[in-house]
Write a structure and sequence with these properties.
Number of helices: 6
Order of helices and strands: EHEEHEHEEEEEEHHH
CATH architecture: 3-Layer(aba) Sandwich
Largest sheet: 8 strands, mixed
Mean pLDDT: 94
Radius of gyration: 16 Å
CATH superfamily: Class I glutamine amidotransferase (GATase) domain
Structural class: alpha/beta
Distance between the termini: 19 Å
C-alpha cells in the first residue's frame, strides 16, 4: 500500500502525519517537487500527500514546478487517487482545483485554535501555524475551518475523488517547529511573537499534538476512503 509524498528535496519533514501513515503499514514513496513526473509514470498508490514548503505557490519563480505539481494533482484525482495537502500543499491543492493563493498582510504563527464546522476533519486545535500565505479555496469546495487569517481546511470532490487540505500544521514536531522559528526570525518578528515562548509552546503541546495528528490522519483516511493495511494500531 503505497502513498506518494510530494515534498521539497531538502525538506522531508512529515512529522506526526507520515509517522502515523508508516505505523498503519503504508509504504511512503517520496517525490521531489522539482522532479515531478506525470501520474501515469508513477506506481499505483492509495493516496498522494502534499507536504509544506518554504516556497510560495504564487511566486513567478516557482511557476514551472508549481504547474507540474498542479497537473499531477488533477490527473491523480481523475485517476481515482485521493489527495491530502498541508500548508503549501493545501495552497497547491486549492490552485490545482481552481482556487488561488496570495501573500497575506502579516504572518500567522504560533499555536492557534480554528473555527470549525466539522470537528472530525477539522478539529479546533490549537494547531501549529507558521506561514505568510493565504489560500482561496476552489469555488466548488466545502470550507470546514477558518481563522482570522483565512481558510484553514477544505474538502473537494469535484474531480470524482475526494481531497482534503489543511492550512495549519498537524504534522509538525517541536524540533521542526524550533528549526522554523530559528531559521525565519523575520516571520516571528512580524507576527509579534517571542521566539522562546512559541518554541516552549511547541514542547508543551507535543504529546497532545501527536495524539491529535494521529487521530486526524485516521479520520481523514476514512473520509478519503483509503483502505488501511494494518489493523488495531495504537
Amino acid at each position: 500500500m503505497l502513498i506518494h509524498v510530494v515534498a521539497d528535496g531538502t525538506d522531508r519533514e512529515g512529522g506526526y502525519v507520515t509517522e502515523r501513515l508508516a505505523a498503519l503499514g503504508f509504504e511512503l514513496g517520496w517525490i521531489d517537487r522539482d522532479a515531478v513526473v506525470a501520474h501515469d509514470e508513477l506506481a499505483p498508490a492509495a493516496m498522494m500527500l502534499l507536504l509544506g514548503s518554504e516556497r510560495s505557490a504564487h511566486e513567478p519563480r516557482w511557476a514551472g514546478p508549481v504547474a507540474a505539481e498542479e497537473a499531477l494533482v488533477r490527473s491523480s484525482l481523475r485517476a481515482g487517487t485521493p489527495v491530502m495537502g498541508i500548508c503549501f500543499g493545501a495552497q497547491l491543492l486549492a490552485r490545482a482545483l481552481g482556487g488561488a493563493s496570495y501573500r497575506g498582510d502579516e504572518p500567522e504563527a504560533g499555536w492557534k485554535r480554528v473555527d470549525t464546522i466539522d470537528p472530525v476533519l477539522c478539529p479546533e486545535g490549537p494547531w501549529a501555524q507558521f506561514h505568510r500565505d493565504v489560500l482561496t479555496p476552489p469555488q466548488q469546495a466545502r470550507v470546514l475551518g477558518t481563522s482570522w487569517y483565512g481558510p484553514q481546511c477544505f474538502i473537494d470532490e469535484s474531480l470524482g475523488t475526494p481531497a482534503i487540505a489543511w492550512q495549519f500544521h498537524p504534522e509538525v514536531t517541536p524540533q521542526t517547529y524550533a528549526r522554523w522559528v530559528d531559521d525565519d526570525t523575520e516571520t516571528v518578528r512580524q507576527a509579534g511573537l517571542d521566539a522562546t515562548f512559541i518554541k516552549r509552546q511547541a514542547l508543551a503541546s507535543a504529546a497532545r499534538a501527536r495524539i491529535a495528528a494521529h487521530r486526524l490522519v485516521d479520520d481523514a483516511l476514512r473520509y478519503l476512503e483509503v483502505d488501511v493495511p494494518a489493523a488495531d494500531v495504537s
